[in-house]
Amino acid sequence: xxxxxxxxxxxxxxxxxxxxxxALPAAFAAPSSTAVISExxxxxxNSGATLTRDFVxxxxxxxxxxxxxxxxxQYLPGTPSAGSxxxxxxxxxxxxxxxxxxxxxxxxxxGTVALPTPDATGTVAMSATSGTVALVSGTTPLTCKTAADCxxxxxxxxxxxxxxxxxxxxxxxxxxxxxxxxxxxxxxxxDTDNNAADLAAGAPTPVNAAGxxxxxxxxxxxxxxxxxxxxxxxxxxxxxxxxxxNGQSVTGVPGIVTGVRTTGSRGFWIQDATPDADAxxxxxxxxxxxxxxxxxxxxxSVLVSGKVDEYYPSAxxxxxxxxxxxxxxxxxxxxxxxxxxxxxxxSVPDAYVPSAGNGSVDALALDPATYAxxxxxxxxxxxxxIADTRVTGATTAYDEVWVTVKPNxxxxxxxxxxxxxxxxxxxxxxxxxxxxxxxxxxxxxxxDELSGTTTGVMDYASFGGYNLQATELGTLTxxxxxxxxxxxxxxxxxxxxxxxxxxxxxxxxxxxxxxxxAGVAVNLSSPDIVSLEEIQDDNGAVNDGTxxxxxxxxxxxxxxxxxxxxxxxxxxIAPVDGKDGGEPGGNIRNVFLFNPERVxxxxxxxxxxxxxxxxxxxxxxxxxxxxxGRIAPTNDAWADSRKPLVGEFRFHGKPVFVIGNHFTSxxxxxxxxxxxxxxxxxxxTKRVKQAxxxxxxxxxxxxxxxxxxxxxxxxxxDFAFSPTMDALTDGQVLKPLITTLPExxxxxxxxxGNSQTLDHILTSPGVYRFDYDVVHINAEFADQASDHDxxxxxxxxxxxx
Length: 801
Prior knowledge:
The chain is mainly β. The chain is built from eight helices and 45 strands.
């Protein structure tokens, strides 16, 4: 097994050229419809390579044989020096129309698979990552060392620069060359004289004039087979997540084209119309064409030759089984498509995925009757259909929407699907995308319905895992989800809210300020205190040492006034430049807004970015050593992360301590749908440390005054059932209020169709009477000012048991 190429173009040490018997082009500045270089691979024999030597492959797109007598293939280092010379490999013979011609180059010490018998042999040790290859009429070494000079040399039939090559065609070289990847033109062999656009990276696929491929494929015409080979799609897919033919070449695989993707990761899906009897083996597979748009249509009956590859979108995801560097023969068009498999509450299992003891599930035999992810994998690349599905994740900026095929699976009050446990995954969630780029994608909110049938191909992606690439999309039924407005606090109630405003800075558009301000003034009914997360410095991502947020907060508070709210004051502690994580240059921090007409902030000098705040016991109770202050800011728990902000307030003469938090994110955790099961939550270790530090500080406040009113709140980036929450509440010093709500309302964030809670408000035992609310205004909507919903607690500070 191997980690395959990224979706950027890959090059190694192979070059393929298409030739015709017509006159040579005067210069490669004019695109050629006949003679081109089609593949270059310089990684042969390198560490990690499969093939033992470099190669250059030529191809003829013309209708007559092309005579190579007196021609040469020449190589120049990617960054030539004054002493660099073009190295020449002489050619003989000819290339048949539609055929290939293989030029073997230097061998290395690595690799295990020989090239097919070469048609010419050179001794050039090509670079795996950067170089220039030219097809030349003649054997005299070229002398040009710039793109412009080479374009003027009429002997050059075609030229490919790869990696960081100085000499190349067009705006840039082809990219992605490595020890395991070559660059090659698509099946059309199109030449626009732009190497970056014309050649795509992938596994090397050398073919000689006899039609032989590496690994022993027999002679014939692999570029245009007319009879099916011996391999079927279900043979490629196999009974596990990794193909038993991974890394092998296949010829003449038959199938019906069921979907075509012309943007992003281009390619098409084929499905065998004659399935086997094994439910574990998918009958569909993706054919990856790289930067070349597919030249097939839905309903075409095709034969596909190429190389089987397992593409991993990232190191922790499952893979996508593909046929790469394809050569396609269209046998007929307008054929009926295989019937789709219906996914619904009865067909999708309740168990999510088998355990591999935190290891990889790749080698486990699929059990589609027991596990949902095994079912989806057994349908990878095949047609599926869903009907009348409820939206559980709003339409994103990438035109994707989450639905559930299980309407009764953990529903929330407003139409979502609740994520309530690490061990109880929601198996009915499916991400829907569309292959039809001519129609607008529906803009849906949580609780809406994708009515009627949606049919398409089961795919897999790094974000969200299994998804339905729709060829026929259902219609949107709008259920008119409304944004919530919480009640106004009573005179005796102190209202404290938390709101993640998603990287707000003074360079943002006024519309963002206005929408967030309306959330505070209207939807939150103007709380007395608002703890803000993700306030950046005044110039946002500009990394010039700026750390202040005065202009940002002035615009925000002015916008709140314009929306009908009070004139808030603010307090924060600016971080040391570059030390609090978040967007580079943004200097993210926590901020308190407060309404001075309703609540007093106790200013006490001494708080700065690096000095820890402490609890000070007095005869009248506990106070802070500094207000505002930061909790243990130099502790390694907060390295490259936001430090908690602590403030001392007075409401109706009573002290209230507020701690604003923004714990480290879940970045780096293994995905729920990934190949490692159960997934490791590597980021959790740091959040547990952070929670422990906050718990220690709250404990110190309560040790000085057990009746101290403490409100801890913010974006904790973790769930109510997490070890982070256990560490934060240890010793019952804090009570998480999210658990006081009905279960179907315990969420403030929606991720991959799961309604969940990352934001929290917790109170100390000294807070006896409260009214708590999550105000849903963002997370469930396609149009959102932030991806978080705010929360609010209203506290009666005079209440006692």
